[in-house]
Amino acid sequence: MKKVMLNNYGNVDVMNMVEVDLPKPAANQIVVETASIGVNDPDVVLRANGPFPTMPKDIKPVLPHSLGQDFSGVVTEIGDKVTRFAVGDHVVGMSYMNTYSEYILLDDSGVVATVPKNLDLVPLGGFYLGVATAYAATIRDGQTKAGQKVLIHGAAGGVGSKAVQLAKSAGAYVIATGSAQQIAYMKQLGADETIDYQTQDFTKLVSDVDLVVNLTGPKTLADSYQVVKKGGRITSVNAVIDEEEAKRRGITGTYSMGFMTIKELEEVIDLYTQGKLDVHVDKTYQFDLPDIKQAHLDFEAGGNTGKKVIIFGN
């Protein structure tokens, strides 16, 4: 089978397509034929720069290694002791640094869940990481509740689009920031107010919010403390919280990690099945090296609206 591997870090040319043996499951493992995978910030940043400072030591990859986080696919083989899955099941989930591959080997205890077979597996390849990160920042750490005012930075991206929908599902009033070109999309997601970050200063337009969800960079995070009301919260997924500043202002700051339990994954799949949570696919790419390289280049160019996904087969 084909698999993407890295021998070093740098530009897109460090990615290599190699041939490896098909995985064989142990007693408590499953094999999934990959249908689709998401193009995600951790993979693009790690490929370019290596493991980042906020990455816990126990999950820092060691060269040579593959890439990839979330996936969708079909179970093709199960171990003798597997009871949670059957051959032919359609599944979505997470397999850390392991999804840029035609087949994925997983423990049956992993964060993987079945989805109805009538659902299109292509957008679901970009489901888990965006939803898990949005869930952590908005629900688990953000503790969004009905009636609260929530400001979401980077609301049109793969994570932000889901954060908007999750916050709205929780009953919050949502203010979303993005580019002028993304305003209509953010409103379509359910945002109550939108801010064009390129021409408008959110610090002059927003105040006394219950929660800020920062999905952009450190500068936006630094400017966001002032708009959170005392006793409120601020979460960030890619810039480290200034604990002293948060304490000084009487707010709770959390660096949010994108993970979900199996139960939480099943709950958000249920929202997706009901049409309360959507994955907007911005662009698809084939699982071949030129297309994968282009996917990374397009992601790095910024202005991402929805998800970019890599699809396997025709």
What does this structure look like?
This protein is 27% helix and 28% strand. It is an alpha/beta fold. The strands form three sheets. Strands 3, 4, 5, 6, 7, 14 and 15 form a seven-stranded mixed beta sheet that branches. The protein is globular, with a radius of gyration of 19 Å. The model has no long low-confidence stretch (mean pLDDT 95).
Which labels suit this protein?
314 residues; alpha/beta; Quinone Oxidoreductase, Chain A, domain 1; seven-stranded mixed β-sheet; six-stranded parallel β-sheet; 10 helices; 15 strands
Major sheet size, sense and barrel closure: 7 strands, mixed
Question: Helicity range of the residues?
Answer: 25-40%
Structural class: alpha/beta
Give the total of beta strands.
Answer: 15
What distance separates the N and C termini? 16 Å
Order of helices and strands: EEEHEEEEHHEHEHEHEHEHEHEHE
In the CATH scheme, what's the topology name of the largest domain? Quinone Oxidoreductase, Chain A, domain 1
CATH class of the largest domain: Alpha Beta
Which residues sit in consecutive blocks of at least 5 with pLDDT less than 50?
none
- In round numbers, the mean pLDDT is 95
- Tell me the count of domains: 2
- CATH homologous superfamily of the largest domain? Medium-chain alcohol dehydrogenases, catalytic domain
Q: What fraction strand?
A: 25-35%
Radius of gyration, CA atoms, in whole angstroms: 19 Å
- Overall morphology: globular
Count helical runs: 10
CATH architecture of the largest domain: Alpha-Beta Complex
Pfam families: ADH_N (PF08240), ADH_zinc_N_2 (PF13602)
Subcellular location: Cytoplasm
Subunit structure: Homotetramer.
Keywords: Cytoplasm, NADP, RNA-binding
